[in-house]
Write a structure and sequence with these properties.
mainly alpha, three-stranded mixed β-sheet, 5 helices, 4% strand
């Protein structure tokens, strides 16, 4: 059944998978991913700030125009009082109340303008800080990527050699057995497990007597009823 050969094949197959996983978890690769994500985050922050600034500028222009208009209206009311004084106390009170309401509105607009200008200055500083941080990180990213690219190139050649050796060894195996191995590997790694004191060495579940008898006979491939691994008894 070639179980000895399949077990040896699994060792080099799993070793190649382990090496490939180590490549993905390389410290340099993880640092690059972290730096890339930071740069993308800063770019998104810049876009949001730019959108906020655009909205603020529109509002600032609108408030400035309205404040200027109200200032003109107030000046006109003062001029009207000088050239055409109120004839009665009631008219005088009415004009005074209207002027006060206008002055209060103008004050609120001026306060809003002052706040928006302050916010604009704060956002401008924030944009500058983001640009500096992003530029510094991009420089570090480019330097590290040069190192990582060389590292990846070497590791890729090693992995390619390991995979070629695996395919060479796979050609020596019964293809039906190899297909079953690869199917099990899709949901269970490693796909084979040794028999250990009447238990599956993969999931450590005790095996039924019938399964143990089949293994002892060695006439066919036996799989664990619990985890589905191909059982291997080196004896």
């Amino acid at each position: 059944m070639q179980l000895d050969e399949l077990w040896n094949f699994m060792q080099v197959d799993v070793e190649a998978d382990k090496f490939e996983n180590q490549m993905r978890l390389s410290p340099n690769r993880q640092k690059l991913l972290k730096q890339r994500n930071f740069i993308l985050e800063q770019q998104n922050n810049m876009k949001k700030l730019e959108a906020d600034v655009a909205v603020m500028q529109d509002r600032l222009a609108a408030v400035e125009d309205e404040a200027q208009r109200l200032s003109g209206v107030l000046s006109g009311m003062v001029e009207e009082l000088e050239t055409n004084p109120p004839a009665t106390v009631e008219e005088s009170d009415r004009r005074a109340e209207a002027a006060q309401r206008l002055a209060d509105t103008l004050t609120r607009y001026e306060q809003e303008l002052a706040k928006m200008r302050k916010d604009a200055e704060a956002r401008d500083r924030q944009q500058k800080e983001i640009r500096v941080r992003a530029a510094r990180t991009k420089q570090e990213y480019d330097q590290l990527k040069t190192v990582y690219d060389e590292e990846f190139k070497r590791d890729q050649q090693t992995l390619k050699s390991m995979r070629a050796n695996i395919e060479k060894e796979a050609a020596k195996l019964d293809q039906a057995l190899l297909s079953r191995y690869r199917a099990i590997k899709q949901h269970c790694t490693p796909p084979m497990a040794k028999l250990v004191d009447g238990q599956c060495g993969g999931c450590f579940m005790s095996l039924p007597s019938a399964t143990l008898r089949e293994l002892k006979l060695g006439e066919k491939t036996v799989e664990c009823d619990n985890c589905g691994r191909i059982l291997y008894d080196p004896r």
